[in-house]
Amino acid sequence: MNGRDGTSWSLLHRRSVGGLVWSGGIPSGIRMRQACVLRSRRPSCVKGICHRGLLEPLGRPASRRTPLAVVLAQQASSPGKEKGKSSGISSGVRLEQIFLTFKNRELLKGVSWEVKKGERAGLVGMNGTGKTTQLKIISGAIEADSGQVVKAKHNMKIVYLTQEFDVQLSRTVREEFSSVYEEGLKVIRRQEAIQKEIEDATEDMDRLSSLLDELNDLSKKSVDLDVNLLDKKIDRVMQQLGFRREDNDRLVASYSGGWQMRLCLGKSLLQDPDLLLLDEPTNHLDLETIQWLEDYLKQQEVPMVIVSHDREFLDQLCTKIIETERGKATTFVGNYTQYVQQKRDLLNQQWAAWDKQQKEILRQMELIKRLSGGSQSGRAEAAKKYLAKLREEGNFVERPFIPKKRAFTFPEVKKIGQLVASVKNLTHGYGDKMLFDGVDLTIEKGERVAIIGPNGCGKSTFLRLIMQMEKPISGTVQLGAHNIHANYFEQNQAEALDLDKTVLGTLVAAAPDALLDDVKGLLGRMMFDNAAHSKKVAVLSGGEKARLALAKFMLTKGTLLVLDEPTNHLDIPSKEMLEEAINAFQGSVIAVSHDRYFLKQVATRVLKVEGCGLKDYRWGFDYFLEQDEQERSMMEAKERKVKAIEQKVMKKGRKVPKAEKKRQKKEKGRKFNSAQSAKGKQGKAAKNTKRWK
Q1: Rounded to an integer, what distance in angstroms lies between the CA atom of residue 90 and that of residue 320?
Q2: Which residues does the annotated region (Disordered) include (predicted)?
Q3: Same fold across 92-170+258-334 and 419-485+558-645
């Protein structure tokens, strides 16, 4: 087949079976681009189709060709491109066939996807699959080996909000926000300096002329930069983010991580970005701030690409999910929950197609075995040719990839008493800050208790009190007497690892009685292959240290698990493994976490730290969310009612008495009469005076 440009193409027809592509004729109801793959005799692509990943040059190595299952998943989850349209995009950004090799490993293998105005795309995948790398490629921080990033416009403004907060702690809040407009501020400062110089150069006409010319140029530049609107923009964003006027002069260092995140987000939005890249934006944020962030981002029209392991955040915010797996990217329309269902359906289709192919292969092999050498050897030869053709690149349906299931259980719990922990009349705090005052609490066998609340309210302190690591100012904290042994996972557990030990040595030291095969098996489930066993802890990434710390915790025996932010730095498969292990655990659990999806899976009871006390919700995290929403709505209604009453009182207080109104009217008439008399218009003044009586 010849293209319009004279390029010669070969057309391989395939039949669609269970969502995959099958060799043979093209069935009705399937579009040409979905039912066939074009291959060129020269390494070039047809404009407008190649970027979809449906057109592959023959010159590309087999290892870099897109698997048909991935192609069809991309085709099914995003609308096709209309004929005749150019490869440009009206908004946002598109990745086209991105390849990247990192540390001798092919990290990205023909990644293609796009995000447009109004869309919020979530990048998901296991740690190390290249999610953050894709953000860096878009931002221009690193360059891909091949492929291209297509932008809606040449001067597209891309803002990248990294995991590290880009703030200077020594600045005030106002200075930090204003730092975004450094060029505009330089113009303002120079204008002020020139005005002072002009006052001193009144006798030097040449100097004065030069200054006036420069001032004129700066005035034009200030118009281009909207210098006069900078303060208004900053005031508006500060108000949206929850900052008050009195916060202008507060030091950035005095704010928590959640408020510093708001600063970074505000600085990003002040730049009027065409694309916003967010890398783990919910890290270290409390539940209230995460919910605020979701609501705020939903109101923005700017296209966003979000890397996050927070499944609830992805559920609430994202309009599409882009999964990176084995170097390939697949797009699924919808939020995280919809992605999980779509992927399950796609996998079922792939298995059905593969199973049908295998049955056909067995049938053809039986045919060859039965007919070879006989009078019907021609049919046997045809079967051989069919199998040979089937195994050609693009014809063969690969066995569906299923990531290795990670599963683990905590050490078996022997019989324990009904009472796990008892807190009576607890009072505790630091200096002038009181965290708990007169708290009473009982935790019983089998309960999985979640402790939530804003950062700094005392959640981690409460766990340390449970662990007897701190003594309360007054009151008592006691563990049950019958076989209650607490196993504590601290928030900074990964940082507490011995950097000089090896990966395997760390676990052996933690559980010297454990069988070596069991220890190695756990490391395998935590994604540490045999080569990683001898690695020093010091060379591990943050995510690897977090998984190793969790593995160490899982090997330690205990009947009460006390966990402080256990899901920090874990990828989604690791979180799922932890959830399954906790739900199978026969003892009791006390966990501090801001991961709502995790809490929904494991918590049977919720304690909210509020007003130096603990508010108890006995029916799990979903019940807490319902009650919290009702309480919040009631509080907002009460605040609106109070505000309306205050406005009514203020309006009533501003009401002018009738006697005062009459006096003001007469005084106004007197002044008017005097003014008119002074102009020699006494007659008219006398006439008008009647109006003021």
Answers
A1: 18
A2: 646-693
A3: yes
Which pLDDT does position 651 carry in this prediction?
Answer: 67
Residue 274 CB neighbours (<10 A): 19
* Residue 27 DSSP code: P
Alpha carbons 50 and 511: distance in angstroms, whole number: 54
Two tokens at 612?
């130096």
The C-alpha angle 422, 425, 430, rounded to 5 degrees, equals 105
- Domains in the chain: boundaries: 1-87, 92-170+258-334, 171-250, 354-390, 419-485+558-645, 500-555, 658-692
Domain at 419-485+558-645, CATH homologous superfamily = P-loop containing nucleotide triphosphate hydrolases (3.40.50.300)
Burial of 592 (0-12, 13-18, 19+ CB in 10 A): buried
Distance CA 316, CA 381 (A): 58
- CA 622 from chain center: how many Å? 22
- Between the alpha carbon of residue 174 and those of residues 160, 193, 228, 546, the distances in Å are 21, 22, 16, 37
Question: Does residue 606 contact residue 466 with C-beta atoms inside 8 Å?
Answer: no
Three-state DSSP at 220 gives: helix
At 173-218, the pLDDT tens digits run: 988 888 888 888 788 888 888 888 888 777 778 888 888 888 888 8
Sign of CA dihedral 404, 407, 408, 412: negative
Displacement of CA 102 from its chain's centroid (Å):
24
How do 275-279 and 304-307 pair as beta strands?
parallel
* 83-92 burial code (b ≥16 CB/10 A, e <16): eeeebebebb
* DSSP 8-state assignment for residue 418: S
Let me know: does 134 contact 111? Beta carbons within 8 Å: yes
| 492-501, 640-649, 684-693: range with highest mean pLDDT | 492-501
Tokens found for residue 391 = 């195994």
Contact of 387 with 364, CB cutoff 8 Å: yes
Contact 603, 428 (CB under 8 A): no
Q: What is the DSSP letter of 320?
A: E
Mean pLDDT to the nearest integer, 481-488:
91
H/E stretch holding 307: strand 304-307
Contact status, residue 562 vs residue 590, Cβ threshold 8 Å:
yes
CB 657 within 8 A of CB 631: no
| Cα separations in angstroms, 432 against 428, 435, 446 | 11, 10, 37
Burial class (CB in 10 A: 0-12, 13-18, 19+), 38: buried
Look up the CATH number of domain 92-170+258-334. Answer: 3.40.50.300
User: pTM of the prediction?
Assistant: 0.71
420 touches 562 (CB < 8 A):
no
